[in-house]
Amino acid sequence: MNILAFDTSSSACSIALRKGGEITVLHEIAPMQQARLILPMIQAALDSFSLTLHQLDAIAYGCGPGSFTGIRIASCTAQGLGFASAVPLVSISSLAALAQTVFMEQGFRKLLVALDARMGQVYWAAYEAGQEGRVQLIHQEQLCAPDEVDLPTQLHTEQWYGVGDGWEKYGKIMSTALKFEPAVVESQLPSARAMLELAEIKLQRGEYVTAGQALPAYLR
Question: More exposed terminus of the chain, fewer Cβ within 10 Å: N or C?
Answer without folding.
Answer: C
